[in-house]
Design a protein that fits this description.
This protein is mainly α and 92 residues long. The chain has one domain (13-91). It is built from three helices and no strands. The chain has helices spanning 13-24, 31-66, 74-91. The radius of gyration is 21 Å and the shape is elongated.
Length: 92
Amino acid sequence: MAKTLTLEVTLSDEALEFVRRKIASGEYLTESEVLANSLELFREEDEEQDRFEIKEVIPAFDEVMADPGSAIPMEQVRQNLEAGRLQRLKAS
């Protein structure tokens, strides 16, 4: 079993209410379980972001630096993002 340490944290009213709702629902038994699970999900998300940057962002950056003419103009990026946002809205 992993070594555990005690840590005192201060939560906003909203965060504390969220923790209490999770316990009341029976999904978790203790505040510690809620926070430990939340931190694990945060760690996984952070690692996924790192993988994305290594796999997608860095190579794209290197490509543009090697050939600046291959870059997409900012206005086109905005249009592409807006089109994607509208498609997601329609799908939901």
